[in-house]
Design goal:
Number of domains: 1
Strand content: 15-25%
CATH class: Alpha Beta
Number of strands: 12
Radius of gyration: 18 Å
Order of helices and strands: HEHHEEHEHHEEEEHHHEEEE
CATH topology: Glutamine Phosphoribosylpyrophosphate, subunit 1, domain 1
Number of helices: 9
Structural class: alpha+beta
Mean pLDDT: 94
Bound molecules: aspartic acid
Helix content: 25-40%
Largest sheet: 8 strands, mixed
CATH superfamily: (Glycosyl)asparaginase
Shape: globular
Length: 303
C-alpha cells in the first residue's frame, strides 16, 4: 500500500517537472533568395521531427544527456547539414569532423576533433567521456576508437560543393530533463576548405558548447575562430552565474561586448534551468527549432 503510494507520488512529481529542448542546424547567409521554398519546408519539417522526438523522450523521463546525443545524431544522419554525412571538405578534399558533448549535472565533457572514420562523431564524443579518462581526443587516435567501438562508418565523401549553401551549418542540441539536468551537444564538419588539422569551436567546452545545472545549456554555431577567441558559451554562463542577468540579456551582451567587437558572426541556442528556450544570431538566418516547458513549439530559419 505504502509502496503504491510512493509510486503515485513519484509519477505526480515527475509529471510536474519542467523539461525542454532546442536544436540548431547552423547559422549563416541563409536567406529566402538562396533557399527555395521546398527546401525550407523539408528542413523545417525535419527540425520539427527531431524536436518532437526529443521532447517525447524527455517526457518519458530520459536524461538530457541522452536526448541531446540522439537529437544531434539525427541531424548528423540527415546529410543536409554540415555535420556527419553532410560534412564539408577541407582544402585537401576530405572531411574532418569535430564534436563535443557536456553533461551539466557533473560537468563531464567528451569531445573529438578532425575525425573522418565515423558519421556520428557526437556518439564518439560521448564514448570518450564515458569510456576514457580524457576530455578531447583528435585525429587518428579518435578514428581508431571509432573503429574499436564499431561506430557507423563515414558514408559520404563530403557534401557536393554546389549544395554547401543549403548544407550551411553545424548542428547542436540543448535540453533540460525532468530531474533538472542540463546538457549540450555540438557537431560539425567545420568550415569549407579549412586547413588540414584545423579545429573549430564546436568540440571546445566554453566556446562551442557549455552546460551547467542551475545555470544554462548552450550550443553555438558560426565562424569558430571568433567563438573560441570570445569563449562565447562560457561567457554567457559566467554572466548568468556572477552578474545574475536574465538569459536573453546575457546572450545579447555576450554578442555585443565579446563576439561582435572582434568581427564574429553566428548564433546560439540556449535552455534555462526552468525550461525556457532562446535563439539568438547575427547572421541572416539560423536553422532552429525548440519546444519549451510550456509545450510551445518554435521552428524557424530566417530572421
Ligand atoms: N562553428 C563551426 C566551425 O567553425 C562552423 C559552423 O558553425 O558553421 O567549425
Amino acid at each position: 500500500m505504502l509502496y503504491t503510494r510512493w509510486i503515485f507520488l513519484w509519477i505526480t512529481w515527475t509529471m510536474a517537472q519542467p523539461f525542454a529542448i532546442a536544436v540548431h542546424g547552423g547559422a549563416g547567409h541563409i536567406t529566402p533568395h538562396n533557399l527555395p521554398p521546398e527546401k525550407v519546408q523539408k528542413i523545417e519539417q525535419y527540425l520539427r521531427e527531431v524536436v518532437e522526438e526529443g521532447y517525447a523522450l524527455l517526457n518519458q523521463g530520459r536524461m538530457a544527456l541522452e536526448v541531446v546525443e540522439i537529437a544531434v545524431r539525427r541531424l548528423e544522419d540527415a546529410g543536409w547539414f554540415n555535420a556527419g554525412r553532410g560534412a564539408v571538405l577541407n582544402e585537401d578534399g576530405f572531411p574532418e569532423l569535430d564534436a563535443g558533448i557536456m553533461d551539466g549535472k557533473d560537468k563531464r565533457v567528451g569531445a573529438v576533433a578532425a575525425v573522418s572514420q565515423t558519421q556520428n562523431p557526437i556518439t564518439l564524443a560521448r564514448l570518450v567521456m564515458e569510456r576514457t579518462p580524457h576530455v578531447l581526443i583528435v585525429g587518428t587516435g579518435a578514428d581508431s576508437l571509432a573503429r574499436l567501438w564499431r561506430l557507423p562508418p563515414f558514408q559520404n565523401q563530403g557534401y557536393p560543393q554546389s549544395e554547401t549553401l543549403w548544407a550551411s551549418g553545424t548542428v547542436g542540441a540543448v535540453a533540460l530533463d525532468k530531474y533538472g539536468n542540463l546538457a549540450a551537444a555540438t557537431s560539425t564538419g567545420g568550415i569549407p576548405r579549412k586547413k588540414r588539422g584545423r579545429v573549430g569551436d564546436s568540440p571546445l567546452v566554453g566556446a562551442g558548447l557549455y552546460a551547467e545545472n542551475g545555470v544554462v545549456a548552450i550550443s553555438t554555431t558560426g565562424h569558430g575562430e571568433y567563438f573560441i577567441r570570445s569563449v562565447l558559451a562560457y561567457d554567457i554562463a559566467a554572466r548568468l552565474r556572477y552578474i545574475r542577468t536574465s538569459l536573453p540579456e546575457a546572450i545579447q551582451e555576450a554578442f555585443q561586448q565579446r563576439l561582435e567587437p572582434i568581427g564574429g558572426t553566428g548564433g546560439v541556442i540556449a535552455v534555462s534551468p526552468t525550461g525556457e528556450i532562446f535563439f539568438h544570431f547575427n547572421t541572416p538566418g539560423m536553422y532552429r527549432a525548440g519546444k519549451d516547458a510550456k509545450g510551445t513549439l518554435m521552428v524557424g530559419i530566417f530572421r
